[in-house]
Amino acid sequence: MKQNIRSLKFSDFEKIIEKIEEPRYRARQIYRWLWKKNVRSFHEMKNISKRCREYLINNFTITHAKISTQIKSKDGTIKFLFCLDDGSKCEGVLIPEKNRVTACISSQVGCSFACKFCATGSMKRKRNIMSYEIFDQVSLMMDKSFKEYNMGITNIVYMGMGEPLVNYQNVVDSINYLTSKEALNMSSKRITVSTVGVSKMIKKLADEKLKVNLAVSLHSANNLKRSEIMDINNSNDLGKLKDSLIYFYNKTKIKITYEYVLLNDFNDNIKDAQELIQFSKIVPSKINLIEFNNVENSKFKKSTNKKTIEFISILKKENIVVNLRRSRGEDVDAACGQLANKI
Ligand code: SF4
């Protein structure tokens, strides 16, 4: 059976080239065709010798994810359903704003974490998404972004389906493809990896020197409450999370972003705000407050406007940097926590 050439590392290309006795620079040429030009067939690799191309054709395949369906919200947000090689499906979202377009991408098909406020959590985890399939989500949405908004993707967030840090190597490899000069050449400052707080892996990410931003789905700074809505808190409590964030900041000097979805009468009172203030002062950080988006069969409701405003003013009095993320794409189930392959 032929192997998918996009699953190989650069060092694997070098070994192949040595084996078939082609000049060493061929490895880089092939890498560029695959990751910069994003070719669909070996025949397109014009500067590769016929002999080398034939070897590749006989031993490898090139496959790409495809867009299965897309649906546009009245606010311009577009939700995509991607079809992967084995027929698995995952979702991505393009979110246009004034001077930027953010692509939200998935790292797993389904998710095993079952956070109570998230639609993806109600789906079982089927499999990890391979690095090249993560890359494909970006490249497919990049084309759409130019067509729809006359500009390319400016920011990437790993906040779609799945927990990126438990599909660690594929996520790291995909970041390397996105940021490599030989591939998409995006700035790592424009990439954010979001996690529920897998402490061990946060430390590992800090050691990578990737310089990507880290967002933590916090949602409560109280251990009992957080455990109620996020299973991860039973094994990785706030104490462990705190240690890993100190480690991350000391290594990278990158501010942490906390994601905090405001749930009516659950985590939106004065005491919740005070606990959040304490936690957010551990290392330099900012807070994104997120409006809860309706999820079928959820017991949670969106905070009232009054409580949201009060919550923000308590944080601001303590000089906390806080942004309120208004819901985007809610009408097409493309908003935060709504991705569950429903298109
Ligand atoms: S919030 Fe993230 S980790 Fe939690 S269930 Fe949803 S996709 Fe999984």
Write a structural description.
By secondary structure, this protein is α/β, with parallel strands linked by helices. It has two domains: 3-61, DNA polymerase, domain 1; 66-332, TIM Barrel (Alpha-Beta Barrel). Helix content is 35%, strand content 19%. It is built from eleven helices and 14 strands. The chain has helices at residues 10-19, 26-35, 50-59, 131-149, 168-179, 199-207, 223-229, 232-235, 238-252, 270-280, 305-317; strands at residues 3-4, 60-61, 66-72, 78-83, 89-96, 101-104, 108-109, 127-128, 155-158, 191-195, 213-217, 256-262, 285-291, 322-325. Helix 5 links the parallel strand 9 and strand 10. Helix 1 (10-19) crosses helix 2 (26-35), helix 6 packs parallel to helix 9 and helix 10 runs parallel beside helix 11 (305-317). The longest helix has 19 residues, at 131-149. It binds iron/sulfur cluster.
| Rg, Å, rounded | 21 Å
Mean pLDDT metric: 93
Quickly give the structural class: alpha/beta
Strand content: 15-25%
Could you estimate the helical fraction of the residues in percent?
A: 25-40%
**How would a textbook summarize the main sheet?**
10 strands, mixed
β-strand number: 14
If classified by CATH, what would the architecture of the largest domain be?
Alpha-Beta Barrel
Put simply, the count of helices is 11
Low-confidence residue ranges:
none
Which descriptor suits the 3D outline?
elongated
Task: Give the strand order, joined by hyphens, for the main sheet.
Answer: 3-4-5-6-9-10-11-12-13-14
Element-by-element helix/strand order = EHHHEEEEEEEHEHEHEHHHEHEHE
Name the CATH superfamily assignment of the largest domain: Aldolase class I
Terminal Cα span: 33 Å
Tell me the CATH topology of the largest domain.
TIM Barrel
Number of domains: 2
What hetero molecules are in the model? iron/sulfur cluster
CATH classification class of the largest domain? Alpha Beta
